[in-house]
Amino acid sequence: MSVPPSRTARLRVESATIGYDRRVIAEDLSVAIPDESFTVIVGPNACGKSTLLRGLSRLLKPSAGQVVLDGRDITSYKTREVARQVGLLPQSSIAPDGITVADLVARGRHPHQGFVRQWTEDDERAVLTAMRQTSVADLAGRPVDELSGGQRQRVWVAMALAQQTGILLLDEPTTFLDITHQIELLELFTDLHHAGHTLVAVLHDLNHAARYGTHLIAMKDGAVVVEGTPEEVVTADAIEEVFGLRCLVTRDPVTGSPQVVPLGRERPGHRPAQTTDTESATHV
Q1: Residue 271 CB neighbour total at 10 angstroms
Q2: Which of 43, 127, 145, 275 is most buried by a 10 A CB count?
Q3: Beta strands in 175-283 (DSSP E)
Q4: What's the pLDDT score for residue 106?
Q5: Cα–Cα distance between 240 and 228 in angstroms, integer?
Q6: Do residues 220 and 43 touch, judged by C-beta distance below 8 A?
Q7: What would the pLDDT profile of 41-69 be if each residue is shown by its tens digit?
Q8: β-strands 11-20, 64-69: how paired?
Q9: If phi over 0 gives left and psi between -120 and 50 gives alpha, with beta otherwise, what is residue 122?
Q10: How far apart are the C-alpha atoms of 262 and 269, rounded to whole Å?
Q11: What is the pLDDT of residue 268?
């Protein structure tokens, strides 16, 4: 069950129809991003998650309805004005040939530049901080096209962080990353959230969404099926409705957040694990 969008949220969608050319992906969509939340959008492939994110960033203009930023239709702002408030890490990006890591991250400062204002110590500090946060400082002089997929993804995240916006939109930010760097990046996003940023991320891993997100939006066929806290969204019934997946929902032994355990097909000789009321965890 979805809830009416808050009309006080800084960023929200009101009765919007969003799509590509003549292909409608979401119709009459209304959703609000709670201020200073770590909102995670989940749902099956091609359900409209990235489309919603592109609408929130003004990359897609609704054919009906509107996206509202700070009380105004987002299309009424100049591009540079939006870029100072809302940062976007797209699903896939292509770096210019030969550009170094430091130069690409520095492009995140572009919205703060102008005909009069030139590069400052604040710009330099923002770039260095972003590279340290994403563990790419030691790659500063390397060409981006020589890096691994995971390294490149961290560089793009650093560029988004260097933009220093209050709202950060992240389209599948953990793509190409191994499990260690996935967790490091999600912990970084949590730190940013605790520092007062509003984050919106599209994630495929439900357990990561439940562990790190403070507000979840579950979508299917271009519509919001349910939204709320992880405990309200990550239920066996909701997961089956949204994903068509039978599962058990237990508790993460470390954080206590909901944890999805898929129920596979029964196989000869396979015995399901016995569970008790007391969960135990082994620390290594």
Answers
A1: 7
A2: 127
A3: 198-202, 215-220, 223-228, 247-251, 258-262
A4: 95
A5: 17
A6: yes
A7: 999 999 999 999 999 999 999 999 999 99
A8: antiparallel
A9: alpha
A10: 19
A11: 67
Q: Among 3-7, 172-176, 250-254, whose mean pLDDT is lowest?
A: 3-7
Task: Give the span between the Cα atoms of 42 and 135, in whole angstroms.
Answer: 27
Are 185 and 134 spatial neighbours (Cβ–Cβ below 8 Å)? yes
Sign of CA dihedral 194, 233, 181, 112: negative
pTM: 0.86
DSSP symbol at 71: T
The span from the CA of 21 to the CA of 261, in Å, is: 39
Using CB atoms within 10 Å of the CB of residue 21, give its burial: 0 to 12 exposed, 13 to 18 middle, 19+ buried: exposed
Structure tokens at 144: 């981006």
Task: Give the pLDDT confidence score for residue 270 in this predicted structure.
Answer: 62
Question: Hunting for tokens 């470390």 — which residue is that?
Answer: 254
Q: What is the pLDDT of residues 166-183, one digit of tens each?
A: 999 999 998 878 899 899
Residue in the block written with tokens 């919106």: 200
Rg (CA), the chain: 20
Q: Which two tokens stand for residue 118?
A: 């030139």
